[in-house]
Design a protein that fits this description.
Elements (H helix, E strand, L loop, with lengths): L5 H53 L3 H6 L5 H25 L5 H15 L2 H10 L5 H8 L8
Helix pairs in contact: 1-3, 3-4, 3-5
Length: 150
């Protein structure tokens, strides 16, 4: 057996160390990107829900703006809440899919989403807005039984 010179062994260990460091940096960058995506989505969701709150205080329904209709004032708050909750659930879905939410919490959120969507008005709002929601979230919601379909 041949002896490996100490200089070559040191160089080999140095290269392994550099490769390990690069892998670690890559993993850290990937995690930072996930956090940035989640943070951006959270900020967008907050803007939309604040807008819904402003519309509700003004007595204006969001669907009315989209469909050029004016809902009765007594229904405005409930309708705007349904719009807001879609953004919240979409945000929750992204947090979960990025690994930032525990499975048990996501399970509870999914049960609540199913309960909300059992309301035909909420399902109608989902159908109205699904073109602007994350496709994976839309696929999830569409996998739930639709008790409102004709």
């Amino acid at each position: 057996m041949r002896k490996i010179p100490i200089e070559i062994l040191i160089q080999l260990l140095g290269m392994v160390g550099i490769i390990g460091s690069l892998i670690f940096v890559g993993l850290e960058m990937r995690q930072s990107q996930r956090f940035a995506l989640a943070s951006q989505q959270q900020a967008r969701m907050e803007v939309w829900t604040e807008m819904m709150n402003g519309l509700t205080e003004s007595g204006v329904g969001f669907s009315g703006l989209l469909k050029n209709e004016v809902p009765p004032e007594s229904e405005v708050a409930a309708e705007n809440w349904r719009h807001s909750i879609m953004w919240v659930f979409e945000n929750d879905y992204l947090q979960y899919s990025l690994g930032l939410m525990d499975d048990s919490i996501w399970s509870a959120k999914t049960n609540r989403l199913k309960a909300v969507l059992s309301n035909c008005e909420a399902r109608e709002i989902f159908d109205l807005r699904k073109g602007g929601l994350r496709q994976e979230f839309v696929n999830l919601v569409e996998s739930f039984p639709n008790e409102c379909s004709e």
